[in-house]
């Protein structure tokens, strides 16, 4: 199967064979053969197998758990950042059923920190709610959202989805643009428990500031998105 | 210092005080007072302090190390994703001195996987090089780059910075646009060693495909950017 006369390095040939296996018949999170088994099966050195695994990991085909071996990476939902997106709409496009579970819902008096971020006055009232977002009942992300109370009085249904439909239909307010900041983080105990994944799992923290046509912040949300479920892509143009 | 009559919840008032401390005189990675010390100092319950810490962590002011306490988050370089960017130019803009250390440089025969990604033929030659990127001598990211050999023959200086200047000046080729994919990951042993940080540190894996005006891939790079050093921001417009 490996051609020792080929100009393509052995680790690189082995890589193609394993990628073919992964793509043709392996499942997400399925364990790969061990380094030792691959050495034997393909008659290559341990060094070659290590290099193959390292390249496969870098290219995103496998993930390596220290002391446990290598596993097939799960397919990720590919979120396009070319324009404004909502979890609900994106999941529907994929034919998945988006649902939300409201974990907490409060109206609080904002402190300086939140006030500064939302460009409101300290002591202004804000809705604060935490939602678990699911796709086909699978836990995908956990979000904490702040919305200025004064702009959207009447708390009865603001915690129901989709938030932007409520903004539009009940308050005639449309999100014109948003700013997002992305930081890779490890899930803490609380997030891990809510998402039902391990503490310290790689995830993306996304802070979103959504604005209306008067440049008012109408939503400030911090999301923790599972790193095994999402990837984010963007097209960059020459300036 | 805390006003128990205020409408702002205690945890939220405490948050403002600690943020003021962090911003006025604390250093990156400096340890916060312990939960117990804060309880005593401000005469509040452990539950209140826990909630404050949780909010401070979510807002990105502190990070919590299990069993070791809370620490001040380091300032992050804010990378704007509105257009094409290069590490060299961005660091210069900040008044930092960008340098690169070439860890490995090879010309290899590509396998199917790389060929497919670069839209070239399998067995075509490609440059493959791994670089450590530094700013003011601090290790920031590690990058593995592939460049088609046929388009840029003559290996002598392609591993020197900045790559795009060489494309432009020697080969009259300009990067017209790029696609990037972002995934949060944990550093593996190799990356951690190169970046001189702990194994399993949160980091961002960025895959870049850079194109010339004929839609040819002229660069394919996988970067591992330290999560404690970078944040990425984007403006999203209504579609």
Task: Give the SSE map.
2 copies of one chain form a homodimer.
Chain A: H1 10-25, H2 35-42, H3 46-58, E1 62-65, E2 69-72, E3 77-80, H4 87-93, E4 98-109, H5 112-118, E5 125-135, E6 138-148, H6 163-171, E7 177-186, H7 189-195, E8 202-211, E9 217-226, E10 230-237
Fold and architecture overview:
- 2 copies of one chain form a homodimer.
- Helix content of chain A is 28%, strand content 35%.
- With 239 residues, chain A is of the alpha+beta class.
- The first copy, chain A, has 2 domains: 10-72, Winged helix-like DNA-binding domain superfamily/Winged helix DNA-binding domain (Arc Repressor Mutant, subunit A, Orthogonal Bundle), CATH 1.10.10; 77-233, 3-Layer(aba) Sandwich (Chorismate lyase), CATH 3.40.1410.
- In chain A, the strands form 3 sheets. Chain A has a 6-stranded antiparallel β-sheet with strand order 4-5-6-9-8-7.
- In chain A, helix 1 (10-25) crosses helix 3 (46-58) and helix 2 packs across helix 3.
- Chains A and B meet through helix 1, helix 3, helix 5, strand 7 and strand 8 of A and helix 1, helix 3, helix 5, strand 7 and strand 8 of B.
CATH architecture of the largest domain in chain A, by name, is 3-Layer(aba) Sandwich
How many β-strand runs of chain A?
A: 10
> What shape does the CA trace of chain A take?
elongated
Low-confidence stretches of chain A: none
CATH topology name of the largest domain in chain A: Chorismate lyase
Q: Main β-sheet of chain A: number of strands, strand sense, barrel status?
A: 6 strands, antiparallel
């Amino acid at each position: 199967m490996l051609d020792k006369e080929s100009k393509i390095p052995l680790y690189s040939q082995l890589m193609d064979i394993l990628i073919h296996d992964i793509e043709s018949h392996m499942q997400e999170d399925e364990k790969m053969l061990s380094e030792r088994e691959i050495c034997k099966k393909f008659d290559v050195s341990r060094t070659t197998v290590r290099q193959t695994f390292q390249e496969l990991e870098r290219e995103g085909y496998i993930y390596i758990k220290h002391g446990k071996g290598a596993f097939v990476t799960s397919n990720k939902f590919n979120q396009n950042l070319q324009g404004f997106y909502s979890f609900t709409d994106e999941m529907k496009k994929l034919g998945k059923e988006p649902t939300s579970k409201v974990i907490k819902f409060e109206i609080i008096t904002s402190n300086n920190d939140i006030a500064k971020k939302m460009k409101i006055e300290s002591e202004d009232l804000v809705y604060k709610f935490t939602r678990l977002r699911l796709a086909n009942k699978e836990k995908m992300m956990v979000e904490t959202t702040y919305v200025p109370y004064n702009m959207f009085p009447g708390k009865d249904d603001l915690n129901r989805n989709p938030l932007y439909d409520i903004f539009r239909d009940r308050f005639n307010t449309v999100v014109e643009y948003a700013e997002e900041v992305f930081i890779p983080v490890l899930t803490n105990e609380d997030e891990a428990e809510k998402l039902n994944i391990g503490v310290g799992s790689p995830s993306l923290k996304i802070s979103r500031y959504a604005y209306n046509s008067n440049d008012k912040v109408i939503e400030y949300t911090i999301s923790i998105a599972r790193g095994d479920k999402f990837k984010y892509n963007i097209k960059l143009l020459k300036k």
